[in-house]
Amino acid sequence: MPTTNWRARAACIPVPDLFIADREEGRAEASRRNREARRICEHCPVRRVCLSDALSVEKGNTASQRAVVRGGMSPSRRAALSKPERARLILDGSPVRRPAGPA
Ligand code: SF4
Questions:
Q1: Rounded to an integer, what distance in angstroms lies between the CA atom of residue 30 and that of residue 10?
Q2: Is the pTM of this model over 0.90?
Q3: DSSP letters along the chain, please?
Q4: Would you say 50 and 90 are in contact if contact means Cβ atoms under 8 Å apart?
Q5: Ligand 1 atom 8: the closest Cα is on which residue?
Q6: Ligand 1 touching residue 75 (CB < 6 A)
Q7: 11 φ, ψ (degrees, to nearest 5)
């Protein structure tokens, strides 16, 4: 299925702990973990589709799911996106893309 196959190519598979929010960790530790996570995302071959997926389902996620880096973007950065930016990024990484050409 095109909507789930991309997960098998995720660069975070070997380091899942960086992408799991820990209730016990302090702000500094969370910040360090998120920085490391973003470094992994920079080289991830499925970053755009991951970000698109995160932004399109985010409102339905639990707080701990929303509290982690996805698609190279921290939770606060995703929350700060404008509606048009969010819509563009969702479309940009969507597996179902509009064909190129005149509108
Ligand atoms: S972009 Fe980051 S969070 Fe998304 S699949 Fe890749 S490594 Fe994982």
A1: 21
A2: no
A3: -HHHHGGGG-TTTT-GGGGS--TT--HHHHHHHHHHHHHHHHT-TTHHHHHHHHHHHGGGS-HHHHTS-BTTB-HHHHHT--HHHHHHHHHHH-SSPPPSS--
A4: no
A5: 12
A6: no
A7: -70, -15
Q: How far is the CA of 37 from the centre of ligand 1 (A)?
A: 8
For the chain, which residues make up each domain, given as ranges? 12-93
Per-residue tokens: 81: 């996106």
Indicate if the pLDDT at residue 14 is higher than 70.
yes
- The confidence score (pLDDT) of residue 28 equals 93
pLDDT, tens digit (0-9, with 9 covering 90-100), for 46-89: 999 999 999 998 876 666 667 789 999 998 899 889 999 999 99
CA distances, 24 to each of 29, 40, 43 (Å): 10, 23, 29
Residue 79's pLDDT is 87
User: Where do we find the tokens 């606060």?
Assistant: 76
